Fold these 2 entries.
Entry 1:
Amino acid sequence: MSGGIKRLRVLAITCVVLTQVGAFVTSPPDALMGHLQKIMYVHVPSAWVMMLAFFIVFVYSVLYLWRRNPLHDLAAASAAEVGTVFTALTLIQGSIWGRPTWGVWWVWDPRLTTTAVLILIYAGYLALRSFTDDEERRARWCAAVGVLGFINVWIVFMSVRWWRTLHQPQSSPSTMSSEYLWGLVANSISFAILLAWLIRERYEIAKLEQAKELDFEEAALSGTVQHV
Amino acid sequence: MSREWSRVKAIVWKDLTAERRTKANFNAVVFFAALTLLLFGFALGPDDQALRAAAGGIVWLTILFSGVLSFNRSYEQELEGGALDALLLYPGERRSIFLGKFLANLGFVLLVEAILIPAATLLYQLDPGLAPFRLLLVILLGSIGFVALGTFYAAMASRVRAREVLLPLLLFPMLIPLLLAAVESTTALLTGDAMGNAGAWIRLLIVFDLIFLVACVLAFDYVIEE
């Protein structure tokens, strides 16, 4: 493993720990939600980096279709996998927060529902990856699916919002006291670094997997390896 | 342009003729659709009011579930005889293959709907007479978006392992805006559209169809090339 990734890993973990602890210690209990509000410091950053991850999938999918560089495909796949994990985390944290706040684990609110659709779209993307054997074909197909899926995110969100609106207004700097705001901003930056590290790490693993596959194929072609 | 159009027409004719001569797929899909309508009736009935209120959703889910069975087949029959390779060797744009298969599948789905929807009106005692033309428009627009994405994803799903489960897995999450718009406008139009909601949903259907028809035609080149 290269030194760059190690440094990125140390930086990501340090930032997340520091900003989480910092936000927890400095923010006073919320007038309505009490200490429950603190889940915001993991929930909102998770949701933001989830969108960031899927934007990265979109960018690398377009790049792949344009340049046909297999490394772009691996980068898109790594971002899709990490993004799916953050989507699952966002949903779980949202449910944990929703239960005491709304009294139910799940409501058919636009952002919740869109997040659920998002995880299904990218689960489909990952399923297509795992079912397609030919590497070049898999890369092309997944790039196309990655682009179409990203186009749809906005349409899904708008349609579900028309269908039903219940969510509290999105947390934004204007609705929030500065005691909470700095923690949210700092944690979002930490999570972005965490995302960068996880995608990078997954990408390096994907490259190793691909190299191993190639080695095996070459060995099989030259007859030095026997299938078990 | 006219040459491309004749290529599209040739593919539509070929696919529909193959279907007309065997009928195996069409009959099976129609029976499956009728069965699904009955199953929804058993699951949500026997209260007439409840069934009528849910009818828009039932009809569209039945269209989705039965339609998805036919998309893979449109490529499978090509793959069986290695005909897809021959089709790809013909000169001309690849998109005419997509457009041809899209129109053939659309014809197939509309034919299934021509049986399914009257059956649903009888079974669930619906009154389509309140806004018949707008209902037909909703059905057409909903089918266009559904078939466009279905034809596109089936080009991939039909060529991998586990294709039966992969196609709905890829397709249905993408169709959620279309499903919402189609169900909401159908339900509104069946009950007289007192709130005037149908228009907005119909516009959403038009936008969805335009975006994904263009996106599928453009992306199909990348999916089909070998």
Note: The radius of gyration of chain A is 20 Å.
Entry 2:
Amino acid sequence: MVVPSNHVYVRGGDGIVDAFLDVVSQAENVVTEAAESEIMAHHERLQSAAAQDPRWSSMAEDIQYWSDEEGNLAYGVPPTSQHHEQAMRTEYGDQTTPPTPLIRMGVVNGVAQMGWSLRQRFYEGGF
Amino acid sequence: MASRATRTPPTIPARPRKTTPPPEYPDHIGFILAEEDALKLMLEECLTLPDRTGAEKPVRIWFRFPDSETTITYPYVTIDLIGIEPAYDLWHSEYPLYKMSEVEEESDTGHVSGYRLYDPSTSRDIALTADDPPGFFVRRNYLQYRLIFQLGLWSNNVAHDRIMTARMFRDIIQPHPSWLHCPADGVWKRMETLGWTPADIPSQEGAQKRIFRKMFTISVQTDLPQDRLADLSMQPRIQKLLLHMWGPPEADRTDGQILPEDRSQYWHTLHDFTQEAP
């Protein structure tokens, strides 16, 4: 560790900082692993729900998650899919069809579930 | 959560529904209907668009899509309830609510203007009768829910589409957080924008013309009582707190119990509530 000459030097500080960095690194791993596994689990739940819904069943396989142009996590039926327009119409409805918000409500539930899972993983990880 | 320190509403608008309700419509508005009405009222009062002369004209608001027998006049807004979610992240603790639990503060000065307890989505306050003893009323804390609404903005020209979208973002569902006054219970309910997406569709005249359609997904936070008012009952009022005294050793006792005829002289008054000022 580089310490400026006009600062008070505490002997053994390197060890404390290393310990902090270790804790932060462990927490980062817990978050990454929990987020990845929860996204996968959520994706499977939503695809399963879509497959059982007559309005979504033909599009269930097209539901994906990807990074949009801005690097944000996007979820749904991607614009490149041939079912994109049908998915938009089903999700948001139109003059004759009421909305069936499978993707949006799935995300709302998924975010809440992810919060619980992260908290649980932190407890289990000793944080 | 409906804000516990509620703002004082400027003027309580009249009941928002202007048409005659159907016969099955309940006397009091209640959960969901109250929030839907508040949302419709807010949009009717806030959302206007300029006509060809520049005069601001109100935009029509519909629940769901207008009936087929209604002439479609663009622009308009549709409201769809698409979800009801318990806000488990806000269900932290149990606490009692009393009839004066809610503090009313002036939103600009913070001045406390009154105390009350609202009945969620139903009433501004809970009226008690004159002979209700003080402090007998208690309810468990209300539980927060989020109602998820889809607001569809429909217009047939690009200028209206852009102006309406801009006003929705800037003035109506404002950035984090935004507040919706619910006339039914006089509480400002928290709104959040969950998403916005363009969903333009071809018009019925053909693919050459477009209907500009923007979809807002918002949440409105409200709450539900854990107790039903109909289940409340008055508890017997405590008049005196008495301590059952043991008699002296020479008193006539049976297995340590004071005989009934002696009982009156062996009750010690710890507190007499009847002597307190009302």
Note: Residues 240-275 of chain B form one domain.
